[in-house]
Amino acid sequence: MIELSRLTKRFGGLAAVKELSLSIRPGTVFGFLGPNGAGKTTTLKMLMGMLPPTEGWARIDGLDVTADSVEVKRRVGFLPDSPAIYEYLTARELLQFIGTLHRIQKEELQERIVALLAEFGLEEKADELVLNYSKGMRKKLAILVALVHRPKVLLLDEPTNGLDPGSVRLLKDMVRREAARGTTILFSTHILEVAQEVSTELGIISSGRMVLLDTKEAIVRAAQDRGETLEDLFLRLTGHRAMAE
Question: Which residues contact 145 (CB under 8 A, 6 or more apart)?
């Protein structure tokens, strides 16, 4: 469902992403792990057609993310790390607008909106301007924007940032439900606990390069065989062992 081949992005002389190759099957929950500045957000922006790759290519559902960017966006739900949401609409109006863009039938759209607002605890604030929302409420609304058209693929960039523990729990439940429905999910994070809890596959990126890629079970088992936790393994592979010590 998601394919990357030698995907590279340079900004001047700096290579933010270096020859990244990856294949993610339908229904997979892929935890994309890396420290800040590792290249996670740049990779997701290339997948969304927001940044053109310098070299290599990427496809989603068989479509080239650059040449077929409009059609890719129809099939993907994207949650950026810092969502920009129009503040002078209510949550309900925003979701109606997004659903209309995706040509969802009116009755079906209203049912989805009611269910999503209730799931994330926004029903009582659904008709207030987003301008008055807290950071956490805006993040939850951005999640609903990514979900409202029931995409085949979810790309989530640091989805737990700005969420309280209860909302993180809702997010994890949503990820499990969508995966069970067959949705392919790629989420970037440096919160190892969340990645270990919901992922089926893990990739660790450091300085733009994939340094480890396998199923979650295989990676956790390999760490245990060395007497390490996933955190120990992550810090060692990303060059942060000294910080942990």
Answer: 77, 79, 83, 85, 94, 95, 98
| pTM exceeds 0.85 for this model | yes
How many residues are given for the chain? 245
Cα separation values, 58 from 7, 85, 99, 191, Å: 7, 27, 26, 26
Q: Give the total number of structural domains in the chain.
A: 1
Residue 134 within a domain: no
CATH code where residue 27 lies: 3.40.50.300
- Exposed/middle/buried for residue 182 (C-beta within 10 Å: 0-12, 13-18, 19+): exposed
- What's the mean pLDDT when you consider all of the chain? 93
Rounded Cα gap, residues 207 and 16, in angstroms = 7
Q: Can you tell me the mean pLDDT for 188-203?
A: 92
Query: Residues 30, 199: contact at Cβ < 8 Å?
Result: yes
Residue 67 lies in a domain: yes
